[in-house]
Amino acid sequence: MEYQAVFQETGAEALLITDPFNMRYLSGFRGGEGMLFLTEDRQVLITDSRYTEAAGKETAFQVMEENREHRRTEILRELLRETKAEAAGYEDQSMRCSEFAALQRALPEVKQWIPLAGRVDRLRRIKTPEEIGYMRRAEEIGDEAFEALLPLLKPGMTELEAAAELEYQMKKRGAEGFSFDTIMASGIHSSMPHAIPSGKKLEAGDFITMDFGCTYQGYCSDMTRTVVMGKADEKQKEMYGIVLRAQRAALELIRAGLPGSRVDREAREIIEKAGYGDCFGHGLGHSVGLYIHEEPRLSPSDDTILEPGMIETVEPGIYVPGFGGVRIEDMVAVTEDGCENLTRSPKELLEL
Ligand code: GLY
Ligand code: MN
Ligand code: MN
C-alpha cells in the first residue's frame, strides 16, 4: 500500500486515520464514522454497529466494533500494546483540538504524537485511470442533467425550484449524492460566487449561474454554466465573452510541468486587461476527488507543479455587485501535454 511510505517519512509506528475521505481512500470503507489503526503490517477499521455489516463488504481490513462495553479508546490501547507502537501519527489538519486532547489523555501508551500534516491527503492527488473513470461519469451525469434542465427553466420559477429540478435530474441518472450544495443564482444574486438558492423568481434578463456537482462511486464532479433568461444585453455579452476567453486560454495552456499559479495567471491577466481585475476575487481552480476542494489549486499562491493524473477545475468569473456575475467551470484531467476536458456542456452564451 502506498501509505507505507508515511511510516518512513514521519517515524510513526502507527497511523490513526480519522478523516472520512482518507479512511475511504485507504480502506474502501464508505461509512465515514470510525477510525483506521494502521501499522506496517496491521490494518484495522474501528467502527460501530451502524456500519459493521457494510464495512465487512467494503474493506479487506480487519473490522473491530466499538460499543459501550468495548470503547474505541480501549480497542486502541489493546492494539497499541499488541503492536508495541509508541509513536502515533494523527491527522492534525482535520481532527478537532478537543478530540486530540481526549486521545492524548486516553492513550498513555503513545510516547510520541506525530502530526501527519496532510501526508495522507497528498497520496490522493494523482488519480488512477479507475478514479478518473468515476469522475468522467460523474461529470457526464452533470452534463446530461444540465441539458435536461434547460428547457424546464421558465420565468416565474424560483431559484430553489430550479436547483431541486437540477438535483432530481442528476439523481435520476445515477448520482449518489451531491458534491456540494447546488448554486442557482439569478439576476443580482449571481454576483455572489457562492450564492444560496432562494425564493427569488427567475426573470427575463437575468443571468443564471448554475454551479453543481454530484458524486459517483464516491468521486465528485464540479461544473458551472451561466445562461441568460431571455435576451442578453451588451454588458452581459461583454462579461460573458471575457470569462469565456479567459477560460479557453487557461484550458489551452494547462499541462503537466507547469505550476498551478501560471495557469491562474493566464486567465487572470485576460480579465485584468479587460478592466475587470477587481471583479475576480477567487482562484482559477482547485483539484477534486473524493472531496470537492482538494489540493493542488490553480491559484496565485500555489506553485505546485501539475502532474499527469491530477484533476483541476478551470473556473474564472466576473462578479459585479448590483448587476450580476458570470462563471464558467470545466473539470479536467491533466495529461503530459495538455488535458482531457471531462465537461462537455456547450459554452456559447445560451439565451433561454
Ligand atoms: N462551488 C464549488 C466550486 O465550484 O468550487
Ligand atoms: Mn463548481
Ligand atoms: Mn469548483
Automatic annotation (TrEMBL):
Key words, A-Z: Aminopeptidase, Hydrolase, Metal-binding, Protease
Every Peptidase M24 domain range: 134-336
Signal peptide extent: none
Lineage: superkingdom: Bacteria
Gene3D superfamilies for this protein: Creatinase/methionine aminopeptidase superfamily, Creatinase/prolidase N-terminal domain
GO molecular function, a single term: metal ion binding
SUPFAM superfamilies given in the database record: Creatinase/aminopeptidase, Creatinase/prolidase N-terminal domain
Domain Creatinase N-terminal, first and last residues per copy: 4-126
Family from the record: Belongs to the peptidase M24B family.
Name the record gives this protein: Aminopeptidase P family protein
